[in-house]
Structures are given as C-alpha cells and as structure tokens.
Amino acid sequence: MCGEFHRLHVHGYPHRRYRDRESGENPRIRVVSILCPIAQAAGRPYTRRLLPDFLIPRCVIRLDHLVEAAREAHSDRSVEKACRVLGCIDTRTARTHLKRLDQAVAAVAVQLAERRAMAPELGELPHTSPQTTPLERLQVLYRSESDAVLRSGDSVLPISLRQMLQAVLWKLPGKEPSSCACPSPRAP
C-alpha cells in the first residue's frame, strides 16, 4: 500500500461469506486484514483484506466456480447450467458474472501481453487459433509468461492467474445510471 517493506501489522480477522453451490447457503470464513501505518499517516488507503484465491472481492460467488462456469458456457452456452455451477438462482446473476469475468480476462490478457511485448528477449508471444476461447488464450499466455520468467533466471514467479483476475475484479464496475427514484431532491 505504501510501496515500502516493513513489519506486517494484522488489523483483524473479519468474516467473509461465499456461496456453497451444493447447499445454497453462504457459509462464513475468516480472512486476514492487514494495516499499513505509513499509508495511514500519508492519508492513503491503509487496510487491505487478504482473500484466498477462490474468492471474488465484494462478492459471494466463488472465482473457481465462475471460471468453471465460463468454460462450460463456451462449450454448452446454457446460462441455466452456469447458474447451477455458480450456485445462483437468477440467470441475470450468472450473465452478469460471466460478463465481468470476460472483461477481467481481456484486461489481464492485455496486461500480460504488454509485459511480454516490453521484453522481447524472453521469446515470442504464444500463437493460438481463432477458435481458442479468451479464457484458454489467457491460460496459454500465462504459461508462456511463467516459462519466460524461469528462462530469464528470475527467482520470483509471477503471481497466480486467479490473483490477477481478483485484482481486476476488485475494481468497481463503471458507474451505471441508477434504476431507483429518490423521493427527495439531492443537491448537485
């Protein structure tokens, strides 16, 4: 958060819920919340929750189930089947999450391709066919990036693909017009 290395400060262990597709319940787990006193003193955001890689930030739908639903959606094109995989009831929920995942996959693919384009000495970008789904293309690009990092002799592997998707999904979606009416006027 501050860009510096310092001692880790645990801020707390808040509860987090996720959707269990078998039972339809939302069980609770604990996640770690960390605090950066340097960022706090600078007036910047100073806490961050460290989520397991199967969770989507600000959402009960699991990321691993969403990726599974996206794979099946490309082969079967059934939103109802995606609902069963995600554990949701409304097909609009499944469509919304699949659309957000498609946007996140595209954003992460661009980030990885830009990084590889800036270091052409690490090899060419992988070739894929037009029939390759965006998710498969992203996985090929990620494997290529991991192999390039190993070839370069760097001891630090890139973060996992799910963590990259989490980072993009964490960003708030664009401001869309509200569909609700407010009875009292708001100041401009």
Strand order of the largest sheet: 1-4-5
Largest sheet: 3 strands, antiparallel
Number of helices: 6
The tally of beta strands, per DSSP, is 5
Distance between the termini: 33 Å
| Helical percentage | 40-55%
Strand composition percent: 5-15%
What would the average pLDDT be, to the nearest integer? 82
Quickly give the structural class. mainly alpha
Shape: flat
**What is the radius of gyration computed over CA atoms, rounded to a whole number of angstroms?**
20 Å
From N to C, what is the helix and strand string?
A: EEEEHEHHHHH
Low-pLDDT residue spans:
180-188
Short description:
With 188 residues, this protein is mainly alpha-helical. It has helices at residues 37-41, 63-76, 79-86, 91-117, 134-152, 161-170; strands at 9-12, 15-17, 28-30, 32-35, 47-50.
Structure report:
The chain has 188 residues and is mainly alpha-helical. Helices cover 44% and strands 10% of the residues. It has helices at 37-41, 63-76, 79-86, 91-117, 134-152, 161-170; strands spanning 9-12, 15-17, 28-30, 32-35, 47-50. Strands 1-4-5 form a three-stranded antiparallel β-sheet, with no helix packed on it. α4 (91-117) packs across α6 (161-170). It is flat, with a radius of gyration of 20 Å.
